[in-house]
Design brief:
This protein has one domain (about 5-325). Helix content is about 25%, strand content about 20%. It contains nine helices and 16 strands. It has helices at about 50-55, 60-75, 105-115, 120-125, 150-155, 190-200, 260-265, 295-300, 320-325, and strands at about 10-15, 25, 40-45, 80-90, 95-105, 145-150, 165-170, 175, 185-190, 210, 215-220, 225-230, 230, 245, 255-260, 285. The strands form four sheets. Strands 1, 3, 4, 5, 6, 7, 10 and 11 form an eight-stranded mixed β-sheet that branches. A four-stranded antiparallel β-sheet has the order 13-12-14-15, with no helix packed on it. A two-stranded antiparallel sheet has the order 2-16. Strand 10 and strand 11 form a beta hairpin. The longest helix has 18 residues, at about 60-75.
């Protein structure tokens, strides 16, 4: 089986520039520093284009990325490296976007890996009776399940390495505040950064998208979309349905956070709808802080990452993970998927 998904399919998340007082969240914050032996390490490669585009603000932007990356490094303990190329472009034609690699696998292998990785109470709820990660594939007909490269490492489907797991790019011409109080008319860069890191980590949502030659594509994030108790949302309901989608770990019994209406705006499936200020929101106003909230951390937890307060449970052997988790991961070919811009 392949141990490197970097030659597999790649999905690209696009964002738009600020308009009518709103901006879509984008970009990523990444940093490598000495960490404990069992710790998540996010490794950036800042490109020459990034330094050139941000100019005098390049160091401040790097430090903002560092601060955003630390949120994930502090709150999750997966013993892996997440390696991201961080790029910048001049002007405002891009606000921020992420680009990440995907590999395919059978649903049974995906669930086996999620079960093997479960450590927290939320993990146990999601895989237990009445949880959102069903024992059998909730879909029928032709479809494909995917994980991002970073997520595959977190779930034990791929051996940890220092190969590139994705790229983030954003426009240096947009008005950002990099640290401290948000200046009038500017956007919280750290919130933008955290948003894009999480997408490279696997917070995508595909909901029937076409990836290369594969139609009806889904990922782990899609399993947590519900419109009510026992009622899956999104394209699980047939066609495009997203006006009442919510994040839920217990089969829709508890609706934790309303999701973006992607059918209406054509944008990201697994972002949050407008409401309280949050790094994972689809849209952001200027002049506000978009922090990573507890519900955001709960989201990343059930997507395969280990929150540090977790009560550790015995994990199956490496051999068992290799046999049950890696079966079927990967797909032939290479392509990009660009989100529609407004």
């Amino acid at each position: 089986m392949p141990t490197d998904l970097s030659t597999r399919f790649r999905i690209r998340r696009g964002r738009i520039v600020p308009r009518s007082g709103l901006a879509l969240l984008g970009a990523a914050a990444l940093w490598m520093a000495p960490r404990p032996a069992e710790a998540l390490i996010i490794v950036p490669t800042f490109t020459a284009g990034f330094v050139s585009a941000f100019g005098a603000d390049a160091v401040a932007a790097e430090n903002a990325w560092i601060a955003a990356a630390n949120v994930f490094q502090t709150n999750f303990s997966d013993n892996i490296h997440i390696n991201i190329t961080v790029n910048g472009v001049a002007g405002t034609g891009v606000f921020g976007q992420s680009n990440t690699f995907l590999g395919s696998l059978p649903y049974s292998s995906l669930r086996t890996a999620v079960v093997a990785d479960a450590k927290t109470a939320d993990d146990m709820t999601s895989i237990g009776a009445g949880g959102s990660v069903a024992v059998t594939d909730p879909l029928t007909g032709t479809h494909t399940w995917w994980v991002t490269r970073a997520q595959a490492k977190a779930l034990g489907l791929l051996t940890d390495d220092l190969s590139n797991d994705g790229t983030t790019t954003f426009g240096a011409g947009n008005p950002f505040t990099f640290s401290g109080a948000i200046a009038p008319g500017t956007y919280d860069f750290q919130g933008v950064a955290a948003h894009e890191i999480s997408e490279v980590m696997g917070r995508l949502g595909l909901m029937g998208a076409t990836i290369g030659n594969f139609t009806n594509s889904y990922d782990l994030a899609d399993l947590f979309t519900y419109s009510g108790a026992g009622v899956r949302g999104g394209s699980f309901a047939g066609g495009c349905h997203s006006t009442n989608d919510w994040f839920s770990i217990d089969n829709g019994t508890t609706l934790l956070k309303k999701e973006n209406d992607y059918c209406a705006n054509g944008l990201d499936v697994d972002d949050w709808a407008p409401g309280t200020n949050d790094s994972f929101n689809q849209f952001s106003n200027p002049n506000i802080v978009n922090a990573v909230t507890d519900v955001d951390l709960r989201n990343m937890d059930v997507l395969g990452y280990d929150r540090v307060f977790a009560t550790t449970t015995p994990e199956p052997s490496t051999l068992a993970l290799m046999v049950t988790g890696l079966v079927g991961i990967g797909a032939s070919g290479f392509s990009r998927r660009q989100k529609r811009r407004s």
